[in-house]
Each structure stands twice: as structure tokens, then as C-alpha cells.
């Protein structure tokens, strides 16, 4: 069976879904800050970018899982073409972990451990950024040769998506943690922090998926997945 797809159209649909989730998130924030009852709490939990049980968290987990599946597919494809590179398999494993982490918030469970051990405050109040930041830098150095060998546009798309993801997941998170420590979570400013953070992450993964779909067509134009640009 041949599956036709358009990377650009997929990207547009991913961004439209993100926009819908963003609207739901903003409505949930407004309701939560304006009213206080059980129904509003349920609506907020279902729509918030900051809730483990929300639709947006499920969506984020699914697109990360999609990235894992696509990188694994590329790993198989390059092996068949005798161009095997273990980096694709590593990427698949990393995105699978990120998908699981997004749904069960493994990184959140490290916060209290590091915060209590090292008495972390301020920008490091969300202390998970320390181990994840160090691991991220190590992985960056590991993948530099891999990135250098990629086709130029694919490499640039990877770098853009990576920058956006790290800027949101770590950069915005640092200031969001500081705000949480000083002023708590029940305010519009904190809601803006987690909304911006999650927005950068979703947009970044959407771009990454677009890059992967485009790359699949480049390396294996005769595959069962055929790109229509």
C-alpha cells in the first residue's frame, strides 16, 4: 500500500491543532482566574497547558511519540540503503522517553529531590533543569557530527526546532520557576509563562516532524510513503 502525504500540509494541520489547543488553554485560564467552582476546575484541568491530565499534554505526548516512530523508520530505511547511522536509533529512543516523560512528568518528580538536597531557589527553583540541561549539552556534542552530515535544509530545520524547544522547555521554565517561587501559580503571569513554554515546545516538535517527513522522501523516494511536497 502506498501512502501519499505532504510534509507542508502535515505541518499546517499540526499548527492548526496547536492553535485550537492554545485557544482552549486561554479560555480555561480565564475561567479559572474569574470563577471558582468544581465545573471550572474540571474544564481548566482538561484544557490547561500546565495539567498532566489535559488534552494538550496528551497531544504533546503523541507528537513526541510520532517523532520517535519517524526517526525509527528512518533508522530502518538508512540501514536498508547501507547508510546506517546509530544516531537515528538514539533519537528514536530519546523521543520515546520524552513522550513518556510528557505524559507522566518524570522530570517534575526530580524537582523536590534536587531542591531539598541543594536548597535551590530563584531561576533554579525548578531544579530538573540541572540534570536535563547537562544531559542535553552532552547529547548536543554527541550529535554534532551527525548534524553536520545531514542535508543542509534538514540540518537547519533540526537546529531551528531544537533551539525553539530548548528555549521553551528550559529558558522560559527558568523564569517560570522563579515566578512560582515568589508569587505562586494562581495568577495570570504564571499562566503566561507555562503557555509560552508549551507553545514553543509544540511548535518545535511540529517543525521537527515536518523535517523528518521531508527527509524520508529525500532518502527513499521509492518507499511506501510518498511525499507530495
Summarize it.
By secondary structure, the protein is mostly helical.
How many domain units?
A: 1
Low-confidence stretches: none
Approximate shape? globular
Tally of separate helices:
9
Taking the sheet with the most strands, its summary is:
2 strands, parallel
The share of residues in helices is: over 70%
| Number of E strands | 2
Distance between the first and last residues' Cα: 19 Å
Average pLDDT taken over every residue: 89
Structural class: mainly alpha
- The helix-strand sequence is EHHHHHHHHHE
Strand order of the largest sheet: 1-2
Rg from C-alpha positions? 19 Å
Amount of beta strand: under 5%
Keywords: Membrane, Transmembrane, Transmembrane helix
Describe the structure.
The chain is mainly α. The protein has one domain (7-219). The protein has nine helices and two strands. It has helices at residues 7-34, 38-47, 55-80, 86-104, 106-109, 111-118, 129-149, 152-183, 188-219, and strands at residues 3-5, 225-227. A two-stranded parallel ribbon has the order 1-2. Keywords: Membrane, Transmembrane, Transmembrane helix.
